[in-house]
Amino acid sequence: MSESTLDKFARELQEEILEDVRRNYSETVVDHWMQPRHLGFLPQHNGYGRLTGSCGDTMEFFLDIENERITRIGFDTDGCGTSIASASITAELALGKPLKEAKMITNLTVLEKAGGLPEEDQHCALLAANTLQEAIKNYEERSKG
Ligand code: FES
Q1: Where are the alpha helices (DSSP H) in the chain?
Q2: Domains in the chain: boundaries
Q3: For 85-101, how does the pLDDT look when each residue is reduced to its tens digit (9 = 90+)?
Q4: From CA 120, how far away is CA 117, in angstroms rounded?
Q5: Does the beta carbon of 57 sit less than 6 angstroms from any atom of ligand 1?
Q6: Does ligand 1 lie within 6 Å of residue 82's CB atom?
Q7: pTM for this predicted structure
Q8: Whether the CB of 125 sits within 6 Å of ligand 1
Q9: What pLDDT digit, counting tens, does each position of 26-42 carry?
Q10: Looking at the domain that runs over 5-144, which CATH code has it been given?
Q11: 79 lines ligand 1 (CB under 6 A)
């Protein structure tokens, strides 16, 4: 069956958008954006963080921590593609790390791993790093209890 005019238009539009994204973002960001890692609710978790960034978007991190090490991780966000990519990169950075090391993950760590972000998107990396830290804090408060 031949491609309809509408299908062709949609495909061309999609390709144009993707090309535009590729011009402005690193390969790493595009990869995490298109195929986010660890996206989703983690039913069994002992650390949880939820923050709303300056842009109004919200992010959540779920951590499963055993012997002071992050053994499983999940995130969710209603934010932009860059926030999904930032959270996915943050999750990869934190997974398997001892808490001591995970606590050192900042927006700068995320930006470095991402290969940089346009200035107007850098707050997305900040939201991801801060939400991770919020989840770690939550775990520490729970374990004090
Ligand atoms: Fe809100 Fe990216 S624009 S997190």
Answers
A1: 5-24, 27-34, 81-94, 99-102, 107-114, 122-144
A2: 5-144
A3: 999 999 999 999 999 99
A4: 8
A5: yes
A6: yes
A7: 0.90
A8: no
A9: 999 999 999 999 999 99
A10: 3.90.1010.10
A11: yes
